[in-house]
Amino acid sequence: MGEDDEKQSEKRYISSEELRLHNTPSDLWISIQGKVYDATHWVKDHPGGELPLFNLAGQDVTDAFVAYHPGTAWSLLDRLPLVGYLSDYRVSDVSKDYRRLITDISKKGLFDKKGHITFIVLCHMCLMFAAVVYGVVCSPSVWVHLGCAVVLGFLWMQSGFLGHDSGHYRILSGPLVNRIMQVVTGNCLAGISIEWWKRNHNAHHIACNSLEFDPDVQHIPVLAVSSELFRGLTSYFYERKMSFDGVARLLVSYQHWTFYPVMCVARLNLFAQSVLLLLSNKRVQGRSMELVGLGVFWVWFPLLVSYLPSWGERVMFVVASFAVTGIQHVQFCLNHFSSSVYVGPPRGNDWFEKQTMGTLDITCEPWMDWFHGGLQFQVEHHLFPRLPRCQLRRIAPLVRELCKKHGLPYDNFSFWEANVRTIRTLRTAALQARDLANPVPKNLVWEAVNTHG
User: Does residue 210 contact residue 222 with C-beta atoms inside 8 Å?
Assistant: First the structure.
């Protein structure tokens, strides 16, 4: 027997069924391009946090791996214990084309061509912040103060877009300056923990529009994008049951009317979630820096507001700035609320399909890209999260053609149409909630038996 034959006979082959059995935090296997790795002890060191690995445990994760990692990451897999080889490893035609497209984009260097967006946005943010401080401190005019609140709202939007970019790829030269930029633009300037955002956003990307695993569609008791949420599903992100009780039923029944007002104050929820994470016992990278950053925000923002001459103007300033930033919260919702949702964990073998079915693009002219911050190309962003936003428009036709080839949806609508679709989705769920409320059910068992419409 030759040496190659001896090595072949020593290989351990594992079926997908056996792989699925190793899907717990204490026994976590994953498969990448046919090789099965034991990632149990790697979880605590994974730069993307533990949730992506937990959510995809016991599966082939090749498509997710190539989406999130540069070519240099392949050598790091050698650090993981190799368990064996997947005996029934197959690659679908969609995945083959998807991986081929990633390779083509990488060869063109598009992942590294970030343009000058970061510099331009930072310059505008500095000017906007200076204008807000000057207007509040030096002008007695209430109209100037109102204008400053509007400018501050747009400033927070731009800081959100920049934080979104820096969470997916390095917007600056090195990891340290990139990290400092994240904390400055997120924690210090906007009062939102960048670590909270990364934890939330990574879970969203991995489990796009899963009602049980994607936190971006888990807004009970205030909003519900599907009547499936009325069954009291479990949120594996928040680690609690999403109870559809009387309060939730009342709020959801009118959600198509309350959606925009809720978005105007949605920032309060982000403040609360940031603090809750940083004060929890969950693993948080740079917890002290994060807390200091939030402390900076809660010093400068109340101090700035205190310079306004009356409580009426102070309330006006806060409400107006939050309401303007609410546009960004609406943008987040437009990309997903009216798209397909599903119940259960994400699956690694239909990555391309789930990302395209759970997202939609917003059509706009290039001169409006500043307003959307890259979110208008949500389909492309979900498929290529490492791609700088200045390249998303360039690859959109390639993604459209790939979707057309495989009979997959490629949804794109105007900003107005996307709003209409979102409100229609919320209204449909609201009417279904009202059905359940007449007569008022005594418990969820009663609801399950009497659900209709």
Answer: no
